[in-house]
Amino acid sequence: MENNTNKPGTVTEEQKTGQQQEADQQHEEHQEGQRPPKTFTEEEVNAIVQKRLNREREKLTKAFEEGTRESDLDERERKILRRELKADTLEKLAENGMPAGLADLVSYDSAEECEKSLQTVAAVFNQAVNEAVKSKARQTTPRESGRFSGNPDPIAGAFGIKR
Question: What is the mean pLDDT of residues 81-99?
Fold first, then answer.
């Protein structure tokens, strides 16, 4: 029987074990160049998490403050718009001879709403005025002229004169 250990191109068990050991050693040397995985204590983990939470809180606080500033500006714009619309409404009421108190009945949410509600208030006001004028202008039916239908002449009655 021939021994395969001496033939060129064949690998013996010893050579396989040696090659495996070399590969393991190279792998270990390669990992030695890198840091070994670090383990953290509970306090270190808590500190890391706390730092990240603080960063996120700061970001959210800044975003909230910016949002608050924007909402403050929006609120100021709405107030200015309401004042301008009310001034325009008072002017229109004065031009049409209507009382300034009607301005309190107008909606100032937007220019369109203001115009629409002003027209409605003006129409209702004018209708009420027309109804009041009509009721005052109505006259009662005149009485018969010349004679009283009920009591006779009070002077004649006082002297006992009958007619």
Answer: 91
